[in-house]
Amino acid sequence: MSDVTAPAAAPLDEVMLAMDVVDTLRHQQGLATRELDSDAKEQQLIDKLRGIYRQQGIEVPDTILREGVAALNESRFVYDAPPPSLGRTLARIYVGRKRWGRPVAAAVIALLVFQVGYFGVWQPYQHGQAEQARLELAEGLPAQMDGLYQTIFEETKVQQGVVDAEAIRTRGKALAAEGNRAGAEKAVADLTALRDRIRQDYSLRIVNRQGEKSGFWTFPEINTDATNYYLVVEALDADGNVLSLPILNEENGQTETVAIWGVRVSEAVYDAVVADKQDDGIIENNEIGRKSFGFLDVEYNVPVSGGAVTRW
Description:
This protein is α+β, with helices and mostly antiparallel strands. The chain has helices at residues 14-27, 29-37, 42-55, 62-73, 86-95, 97-155, 159-177, 181-199, 267-280; strands spanning 202-206, 215-218, 228-236, 242-243, 245-248, 255-258, 260-265, 287-291, 299-300, 304-309.
């Protein structure tokens, strides 16, 4: 042992010093195990512990060293984990909050945002849309039908316009009451088309442009012994603009919206137009009818059969 006196250790509480001895023994597992397992005397273990503390400049009384060895053997100053329980589980969860806190908080916030968006925005929006659609079907569309009917009633100059409008309105309102939105919307569209038809004002003229036919004749498929004569016509408004109109093709039963179509006339009318054009290349009497505001149909200046074609 060195003759140099070690510096006096700072005063320590005896209990704390005993705990430090136990802690030293735990960290020197080789020393404690080797000595105890070889049945060495307690004094030998105490001497070696004393040496360890002296190397650190600490002088530890033998009573404290013996107390520490005894405490190690008696498992004093050893923390025994409490048995599993709800309290222990909650404590562990709380201690680890830094690890799971942020993901859980993010999930909670996302859930709140979803709930606010779905229940506070999306569902009210959907309910509002459904209520708006219900009101439109129950009130809006029927009101449009009434308005269109009233306009037609005031503007038409023929009774047939009122009759047709009344039939469409009655059918449309019945469909609206049944919840048939498509049918009710079609009734509104039909009334709109009828109103626009009554408002049309144009003249029906024979096409007389270079490179285009003014008339033609055909053999109908259902009777090849007969001959149908057609004048090629177009509708012009008061400003001279060509209008596109829905025309029923008598050959296939389909309605097409076209700017030029053929009106079936008698052979005599057809021959008269041919002679007029052959005279000087110009058809002087090129207006064959007029559609006036308030009326449904064209009033023709020449005899017509009522048939028409859109393709030839």
